[in-house]
Amino acid sequence: MGYEADLKLFINGSWRTGEGRDSFAVVNPVTGSEIAELPLATEADLDEALETAKRTYPEWRATEVDKRSAILHKTAKLLKERADEIARTMTQEQGKPIAESKGEVFGAASLFDWYAEEIKRDYGRVLVRPPGQLSRVMHEPVGPVATFTPWNFPIYLLAKKVAAALAAGCSVISKPPEETPGNTLAIARALDDAGLPKGVFQLVHGVPDVVSRHLIGSKVIRKVSFTGSIPVGKHLMKLAADNVTKITLELGGHAPVLIFDDCDLQKTLDMVVPQKFRNAGQVCVSPTRFYVQEGIYDAFITGFTERTRKVKVGDGLLEDTRMGPLANTRRPEAVEALVNDARDKGAKVMTGGSRGDSGGFFFQPTLLADVPLEADIMNNEPFGPVAVSRSFKDMDEAIEQANRLPYGLAAFAFTENGRRANLLGDAIEAGMVGINTFAISIADAPFGGVKESGFGSEGGKEGLETYQVVKAIHQA
Ligand code: NAD
């Protein structure tokens, strides 16, 4: 099946093609071969986008909430209608199985629907004052926004930022990931077709460092939202400091999974194995460090290994594929280095452990057992299809292990003991804790990290607040 996306920039309400611009080769990770050329924004394009965002912001901010809401609902409807086509493009660019791509498009649509409703209920408040006096607290849109999103969930992560920012009344310039651009264009098309005024949303592909310096360096941009790695997040935070620009950072994670001997082990294994290999482990909340209570550790390793060997790896366009290739050539290289380091330091490779022989950017689904704490993979996010495991004695040790890293995005625990579940929820240092569940990324719930995993929530009413400023008006 051929690649069908028509790759363009979307600036000032019009689609821009190559026309002498530099370009970036988009590659299919199944084969490693080029499938399309993506035009990259010039400095003049970025200046035009900034001017446009500045000009369109007051008009969009003043647009009635009902009208904003209707446009966002229509966008959601169009995304759902176009889900098959968008999903095909995503799988060709990113590698994930087609069912995961399609689910992601529906997830993106759910964010537009949710924020379309939430903005209607965004109330300020009136404070208690003597008769004749009035003090009110207002929520106002922050101003033009710049978003930077990665290649692992290209449409969902873009929708998370754009739906909330547009609902709040902000104009938006987005830089999606160059590696997976085609499906992100679908957001621009849907918003345009849904009647969003021209220039309120713009899409600028480009060299990441050039685009972020240019946009964040401009006084037009009043809010930055980034999802990606911790080093890049720290760099963008420094850029944002120059203009004291608000910033939300959703950075990496290294999610611990605490498995207690009172859990239903077979049911737990049936949940954790597919979750580990979803999107080939390239998920910021992917379950990664498995700490298993000593009495059930051997049974866990046996059950995990058996299930992992059955995960069908291949081209994501094939219906029976359960795990595709990694998204780009950097990932298998990084994962291989981490696995080799762990093996050299004494970890046991229970299954997988190498790239396999199918070419492209594949890495086999892998389980490492008895991994020493000093192995790099116990300390740095693998962002690939590798689970690492160790045993623990009691709850205190499990909590200490869960909290030992500078990451604090997601954490999971499996136990049938209700009191233990309560205590774990309190004791774990993470932005999201899933107990007997992995369902933590939902439109109505805040999603974000603590410690070096970042700050500022996306999703939920907190996600709307990150695109607002608060004003108190006092009248005597
Ligand atoms: P990277 O740090 O080079 O890039 C991550 C993302 O940031 C990409 O989309 C890239 O386009 C963007 N980026 C890079 N430099 C930028 C800049 N100066 N300005 C603006 N955007 C910039 O890493 P990578 O090789 O793509 O991925 C490796 C690591 O990134 C992973 O191991 C993982 O830790 C992290 N990551 C996290 C998430 C997440 O969901 N939190 C997503 C993707 C990658």
UniProtKB/TrEMBL annotation:
The keyword Cytoplasm does not apply. It holds the Pfam family Aldedh. It comes from the Bacteria. Residues 15-473 form the Aldehyde dehydrogenase domain. Keywords: Oxidoreductase. Belongs to the aldehyde dehydrogenase family. PANTHER family: SUCCINATE-SEMIALDEHYDE DEHYDROGENASE, MITOCHONDRIAL. This is NAD-dependent succinate-semialdehyde dehydrogenase. The lineage of its organism: Bacteria, Pseudomonadati, Pseudomonadota, Alphaproteobacteria, Sphingomonadales.
